[in-house]
């Protein structure tokens, strides 16, 4: 069974420690949601797991199916089955979406066993249809000039085509209109399987109405400070974070220099 | 220091050679006049480049070639570039001579002319006499003069008024011998309300071939006409390329330049449009890749005389290893050229810490009622983009290649002939050190 195991992960950016010991274990079939106020380290966790070059890991351990993730290059992590739908996907002019997707699919295949053009187009088009994306997005340059919501849909399209073992969604619901939220959530739900784990970073219950999480965690000050079931997200939605802070004696929830 | 171009012929030899080519008297006299100038004028001034230190002094010896009866015996490189059957027209220059010319019957019937320039000077004397050297003048500097005196082979492409040609006319200039004269002159004349697309390829057969390519392209765009000129240069490391391209565009006419500077050797090119008529348009797209210890100077220019004329210039250069690029863009708007718009962008992507790049956007504006803009940047491959691509499982080298190719795509995708476009892609891969 797929397991992502994060132990006491610490990470720095530009000399500033953001993650201060995150511990979390996620198994195949489970959906974990991470919530938390702005600037508390949620995206940093996602970036550190994916291997963003700006985020220096200063401590802790992460394994994906017992393989040391932190030792791997970014592309090796992806090849090992990790996928991150980014909060702010890059725009790359001159590279069409379909050329990019095909390169990404072929990167997972042996030389000589590349996906045929026809099969690729058929698959891409059918998945795009499922996400109600205009076929023209295949020929547009990667994310260039895409609206916020279009970028998010494109992230989900990549997730579906690449069939990762472990998925991190960083605010995939931000910028989505009501219909798109449902469509994207359906896309995610269709990917749910006993051997695929999810870590969903979100601010709102509305996404979790569609995708019911098994566990909900609250992040503050670069740590997971509270965990619970789906009811925790409901309470946060209704009452905000003050009660959590009070309960834990936190006055400033953001990441602070100590 | 002697900074004139050295020419390998004296006046008597030149007269004899030109006569042997059966050139008309006026042309012989123009050559002789230019030869004298070559001995007195100075080298051109090229921004931040010490041209006098380049191998640009030897014009090379004329090397006669026998005409080819067909393309069956043409070298592999030529056959690989040519779409068969030839749809519009094809002309091939091998070293100093044009060896093959073919123009489709339907175009010939409409009055389209495609020949080498010597033949054109005889058979279409009035036209050639009227336009030759009117855009790029021998008086400009010693290399221009040397070219005007010694050019050989070359292309004359003429499209009569009102004729629109869809299939591109292709030209190939192939050099396989060191020390020979390789100085084609391309003269394109498009009558009023006509349309033509011309694609050429300048290529050395081996990387150790040492010549000077001193080439000139003159384009005359008639009233209301559209001319597209695409050119890929892929000359040897030991070869120096000095190329001047210039278009004169009359009212409501438009020229589109698509240029790929893929040489392995020192290269200086200047691609300029004179927007003479009201409502004239110029669009120039240039890509360049530098590798090894190459030095590259790519200049694009637009000079606006006509009212409401519009120019756009885009240059993108990728510099590897220890290559140096000086990218200049000059937009000049003359007094009286009201309601003009001139835009330019120069971007240089540096792939190695030893590569050098310099982008110089220049706006010279003598009229108030205009819009003009420029953007220039010199930078490395964006690390965020590489991270994004790698996060999808794409290797670092593949990711870099995608980003670089994407950077060059706006020009590559505009090349009108499929064969030349895919060849350019291969050349780009090779220049980037892949495959
Ligand atoms: N490149 C950077 N340079 C400096 N500080 C950074 C950088 N990236 C992130 N940080 C800081 O790290 C902290 C955590 O940022 P992070 O993006 O992880 O927050 P988040 O929890 O995802 O917030 P949000 O909910 O707003 O997306 C913030 O204070 C942020 O300003
Ligand atoms: Mg975030």
Automatic annotation (TrEMBL), chain A:
Protein name according to UniProt: Fe-S cluster assembly ATPase SufC
Organism domain of life: Bacteria
GO molecular function terms listed in the Swiss-Prot or TrEMBL record: ATP binding; ATP hydrolysis activity
CDD domains reported for this sequence: ABC_FeS_Assembly
Family: Belongs to the ABC transporter superfamily. Ycf16 family.
InterPro entries (UniProt xref): AAA+_ATPase, ABC_transporter-like_ATP-bd, ABC_transporter-like_CS, FeS-cluster_ATPase_SufC, P-loop_NTPase
NCBIfam families recorded: sufC
Keyword Nucleus among record annotations: no
Pfam families: ABC_tran
Keyword terms of this UniProt record: ATP-binding, Nucleotide-binding
Domain ABC transporter residue range list: 4-246
Keyword ATP-binding assigned: yes
